[in-house]
């Protein structure tokens, strides 16, 4: 039984036990700590854009974000709501510099992605220059612990290697013993199969490269459910404060390599999709979601970033909402908007 239903049942029992209205006057109303059953967005109230989340082998959740905190911040939580800052993935000495000393002066680490592969925590990231789409590299680092330290291994590929402008916002996917990478930002979304050797060399099988979505998207990730692959993405502008139009969208396919379609059968290759989350009177720029997470009751949850309109100085904070599934198997968030307050994820501690 989840906490919220347990509390409701106790309240009903107390009400019955009180009996008459006279008894009700004598008995104080039971106090319920709302923090045990509800939470308020944002769940991380500092700038932590492009969140990526994993539930690690130790049972804790770890969240990684674009380096508005230099060297790529890591946060830790036991319940997806309360997060502590545990440091950074890199230091000034260990941060990646393999795109060249000259270019690296202005390169930043964006859009992390974390996966557990072959008994290692593998942190993928985009090392890129803002506004220079051909200085775009997808790199990776490994660690025995989700908290690091992470050791830089090198690059998976860059824009020139795969001939895709703005090769950032990568997502790693594993299925049936094969490894894949999805990536791209407003110049097409692509997928390619990967080689991964025992000594941690990761390279693309270029002959498998295929475009699976159009030019309206970035910040993609994949979720498989009931025979469908759901391709989540962000569309619009990410980083313009109250004028940001970022919107989280989705399309689905019965095949990993597509075609990904909306409810009406229109292709994501033609920039068709279904809306998951858009802005409202409290939050705008709602996008770049992490891979979905599940609580102990199997409910699905979506992390993403947004600007809070009455706290624009906090930049892109991290929000959390429950993702529901309709009768046709399409995911949705209530009212297609961020919640201000909602029931917490359920954990059976």
CATH homologous superfamily designation of the largest domain: Glycosyl hydrolase domain, family 43
Quickly give the CATH architecture of the largest domain: 5 Propeller
Gap between N and C termini: 11 Å
The CATH C-level name of the largest domain is Mainly Beta
Walk me through what this model shows.
With 349 residues, the protein is mainly beta. It has 2 domains: 1-32, no CATH class; 43-343, Glycosyl hydrolase domain, family 43 (Tachylectin-2, Chain A), CATH 2.115.10. The protein is built from 4 helices and 23 strands. It has helices at residues 3-18, 21-26, 101-104, 159-162; strands at 38-40, 52-55, 61-64, 73-77, 84-88, 108-117, 120-129, 132-143, 151-158, 171-175, 178-183, 189-196, 202-213, 218-225, 228-235, 247-253, 274-277, 283-287, 293-294, 300-308, 316-325, 331-332, 341-343. Strands 18, 19, 20, 21 and 22 form a 5-stranded antiparallel β-sheet that branches. A 4-stranded antiparallel β-sheet has the order 2-3-4-5, with no helix packed on it. The model is unreliable at 1-32 (pLDDT under 50).
């Amino acid at each position: 039984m989840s906490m919220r239903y347990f509390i409701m049942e106790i309240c009903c029992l107390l009400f019955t036990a009180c009996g008459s209205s006279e008894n009700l006057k004598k008995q104080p109303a039971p106090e319920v700590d709302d923090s045990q059953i509800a939470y308020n967005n944002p769940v991380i109230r500092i700038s932590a854009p492009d969140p990526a989340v994993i539930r690690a082998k130790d049972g804790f959740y770890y969240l990684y974000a674009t380096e508005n905190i230099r060297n790529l911040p890591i946060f830790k939580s036991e319940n997806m709501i309360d997060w502590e800052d545990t440091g950074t993935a890199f230091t000034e000495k260990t941060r990646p510099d393999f795109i060249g000393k000259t270019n690296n002066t202005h390169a930043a680490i964006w859009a992390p992605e974390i996966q557990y592969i072959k008994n290692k925590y593998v942190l993928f990231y985009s090392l890129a220059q803002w506004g220079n789409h051909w200085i775009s590299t997808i790199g990776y680092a490994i660690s025995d612990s989700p908290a690091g330290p992470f050791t830089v291994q090198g690059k998976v590929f860059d824009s020139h290697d795969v001939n895709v402008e703005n090769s950032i916002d990568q997502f790693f996917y594993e299925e049936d013993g094969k490894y894949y990478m999805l990536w791209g930002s407003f110049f097409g979304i692509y997928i390619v199969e990967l080689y991964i050797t025992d000594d941690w060399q990761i390279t693309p099988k270029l002959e498998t490269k295929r475009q699976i979505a159009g030019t309206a998207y970035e910040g993609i990730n994949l979720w498989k459910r009931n025979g469908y692959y759901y391709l989540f993405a962000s569309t619009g502008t990410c980083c313009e404060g109250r004028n940001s139009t970022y919107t989280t969208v989705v399309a689905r396919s019965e095949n990993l390599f597509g075609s990904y379609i909306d409810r009406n059968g229109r292709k994501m290759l033609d920039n068709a999709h279904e809306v998951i989350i858009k802005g409202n009177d409290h939050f705008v720029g709602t996008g770049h979601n992490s891979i979905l997470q599940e609580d102990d009751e199997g409910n699905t949850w979506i992390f993403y970033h947004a600007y809070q309109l009455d706290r624009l100085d906090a930049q892109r904070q991290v929000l959390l909402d429950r993702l529901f599934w309709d009768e046709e198997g399409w995911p949705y968030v209530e009212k297609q908007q961020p919640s201000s307050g909602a029931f917490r994820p359920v954990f059976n501690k």
